[in-house]
Amino acid sequence: MGAWQSYRLRLQRKRWRIRAVRKRRELKREVDRTAEIRPLDLLCFSTIRNEAVRLPYFLQYYRDQGINHFLIVDNDSTDGSADYLAAQPDVSVWSTKASYKRSRFGVDWLNWLQMRYAHGHWSLTVDPDEFLIYPFCDTRPLRALTDWLDASSIRSFSAMLLDMYPKGRLDEQPYQSGQDPIEIASWFDSGNYTIARNKRFGNLWIQGGPRARMFFADQPAKAPALNKIPLVKWDRRYAYVSSTHMLLPRGLNQVYDEWGGEKASGVLLHAKFLDTFTAKAAEELTRKQHYSASVEYRAYAETMRDDPDLWCKWSEKYINWRQLEILGLMSKGNWA
Amino acid sequence: MTVGIVMLVHTALGRAEQAARHWAEGGCPVVIHVDANVPRKTYVKFTEALSDVPAVIFSKRFRCEWGTWGIVAASQTASELMLRTFDDVRHVYLASGSCLPLRPVDELIDYLADRPRTDFIESATTADVPWTVGGLDEERFTMRFPFSWKRQRFLFDKFVALQRRLGFKRRIPNGLVPHMGSQWWCLTRQTLTAILQGPDRREYDAYFRHVWIPDESYYQTLARQFSTNIESRSLTLSKFDFQGKPHIFYDDHLQLLRRSDCFVARKIWPHANRLYEAFLTDPAGAMKRTEPNPGKIDRIFAKAVERRTRGRPGLYMQSRFPNEDWENGVTAAPYSVFQGFSEIFENFESWLGKATGSRVHGHLFSPERVEYADGQTTLNGAIGDSAKARDYNANAFLTNLIWNTRGERQCFQFGPADNQDVIWRMSKDPNAQISVISGAWAVPLFRSNMNFMDIRKEAARLQKIESEHLDVLRSPYAKARIRIWTMAEFIEAPMEPLQGILDEIGHTQMRRLSEVPKMVDLTGFGQFLQNLKNQGMHPYLMGDFPVALGPEPTQASPRKPYLVR
């Protein structure tokens, strides 16, 4: 990569940061407990909208993993999500009625909060339907991982999005608040992922899974990206470029080994396909606040009308991280 | 007689305090060196916390940066203090704050009491071990290193390069033979005093002060000078990964550590509460065997390093995406590609499946859809049969398919009508067994009901594609097991090649086959080729076919099927 290219990326990074600073005005501070953040705390960042039913389990899951503080942007929820969050002792909440799309799907807002609060912290950026699985997560807390990453001079940790789905109709088993969604959406595709390298940003572009198989079989290029880098030892100069798919500086995207070895990586279990999905898809279709005029949701709506079964004969049922490791979806790397 | 513990501490002081108390309670005096980088306030608090234990004392503090002299200086002064203060110490054991005693302290004392003259220090000549990381092995003893590797890496590297260019060499004093090894040793009073009180110490110290990572070579080299009985191994279980940093132990290693029978393990994660609880509070966990046996831990860590450096062959995923030719295994398992066979034999796929017991697909790369075995629409790993999805990344489709079906050999048909994007990946893959009957694509055309001009056009197209494919297969980069016959050659004697392929697949069932591959009727094929030639389209890939005849003189009676045993 030439100096010119490198300089342009630098300018781009600065542009995203300036944009994030400008977008801070859209955020209204609801409950600010950030004074309680201690220097070594693990932080979790998220943007939510009408997720009241998911929040209790979401918070519990990450508290158990060892997240010390949650910083959440509430994008105009109408179901009491904000009040629920405000009542939690380890959550700081900002609210906004501004456009999700024009904040580049929440990235600008979170970039700002991270710039402001995450400097020097390990920062986990996830949606409320994403559940981080990392090697040894059943026996070691998240801090064991971040300590090890620190000791290995690794700044970013990759966790691919793994779409989970139930067997049968989506609305067959309604999700109850506080329940582990993976109990319902416990199936996944184990080996139909394709990877391409993004030369410019140095990240991998992963597509596949049930969404590509069911909704995008005839237009595979449009299938959603599944590569994610949610866990980063944040520095105020960093910026997410597009969702958590890639970051700048581009060195942070180098979460894969190019010479045959395996770096350590995890998986984000994506519990999107619950009974709540149909309503959500219908709403997003009219809101048009998602990527590329909600192309994804249009494809869903078309297919969902026939109420398909995402499950197929070769679907795998989720057991634990070791299973995902054996299947080659994540890796321990040299962590043992 | 007892063992004195010299403990070097820089972080997790709380854990260090626990360990120190444990040693002291077991009857071992402890001298603690706290890194000068630790703030004074923290240090004072730490000393006060341990003030109730008389057998724990503190030595003068040095600044310890990794790879520099400070660590040696710290262990020197602490050892001197130990030998001076505690007369009944026979062995001195160098440990760190993140070391955890795994066996009861008296077992260590007894073990050492049984070996009163033995120095336990890993010590090997640099030429003979591949331990070093970063390429500095011999040179760490012959160059100067004034810059910090951690903080001034650029200057460090440049200065090394400069010294290499100038051929700069330091003299090694008194003909010392440099040795290296784990920095965690256990030396006898005799050896240690010989090192610390030797007449040449000043000279040695001056020399080692500028050696790279002296804590791994100072004692290791000098012990060779003075010791009468060196046991070249460390009593501390400490494994290093490929970057030269120690592996860390967590709660889930509890059983492994217990079974290892090692005396001390390093490095323990400070928050591994269960480990500290188990090993520091419950001496009943003692084991009867005497010799440490870390074999299983060795294997686990060796595997982890291999996974990081070599990875799993044939796997492409979010954290393993090798550059071309660096895959260390293009695909995960051997597979067979057949080109032209299903055109020449009528029931080739089912026959092959029975003969080899492997899964035989149709044309996986056919332009219409993916032709999985038995007409399935999805395969292992939930790969669909959409041709578009496959062609979006045909190479990934192939590697995914082979990865997902590990443990079962895959065979599939290929041909010039199929997507050719994968031909390079297959021909460079040592796992691929590619068998080609060139020109066999003409048989379906010959048997088809198309207009002759369309046939001519299609034949010209397929011939061009196959010819390019053969060039790839014959290129010097091809690493697959490749066999190519012209069609004329093959049908002359098909048994031998088929048998050869089956033998290589290796699953050949010894019992007689109930079905045999039956060749299609090729009567008039020679004339068909001649017609193409007459139209100006020269089919050459099938070899020389006699015009009037088929593959053999045409017979009135149906041909006898070929038998393959």
- Radius of gyration of chain A equals 19 Å
- Strands of the widest sheet of chain A, in order across it, are 1-4-3-2-5-12-7
The total number of structural domains of chain A is 1
Class based on secondary structure composition and strand pairing of chain A: alpha/beta
CATH-defined topology of the largest domain in chain B: Rossmann fold
Total DSSP helices of chain A: 9
Question: So, CATH architecture of the largest domain in chain B?
Answer: 3-Layer(aba) Sandwich
User: Which geometry of chain B do the CA atoms define?
Assistant: elongated
What is the makeup of the main sheet of chain B?
5 strands, mixed
Radius of gyration of chain B: 36 Å
Give the averaged pLDDT of chain A, no decimals.
91
Structure class of chain B: alpha/beta
Assembly context of the chains: heterodimer
Layout of strands and helices, then pairs:
The complex is a heterodimer of chains A (about 325) and B (about 575).
Chain A (H helix, E strand, L loop, with lengths): L2 H21 L4 E4 L10 E7 L6 H11 L3 E7 L5 H6 L4 E6 L10 H11 L4 E4 L4 E4 L8 H10 L4 E2 L1 E5 L23 E2 L5 E4 L6 E4 L1 H6 L16 E3 L5 E4 L3 E3 L17 E5 L6 H11 L3 H14 L11 E2 L3 H6 L10
Parallel strand pairs in A: 2-3, 2-5, 3-4, 8-15
Antiparallel strand pairs in A: 1-4, 5-12, 6-15, 7-12, 9-16, 10-11, 13-14
Helix pairs in contact in A: 1-4, 7-8
Chain B lengths: L1 E8 L3 H13 L4 E5 L5 H10 L6 E3 L11 H16 L3 E8 L3 E2 L3 H9 L5 E2 L3 E2 L27 H14 L12 E2 L5 E3 H9 L3 H8 L9 H9 L3 E2 L4 E3 L15 H7 L3 E3 L6 H9 L13 H15 L25 E5 L1 H4 L3 H9 L2 E5 L23 H6 L1 H11 L5 E5 L8 H5 L4 E7 L3 H6 L4 H22 L7 E6 H6 L2 H11 L19 H10 L31
Helix pairs in contact in B: 3-6, 6-8
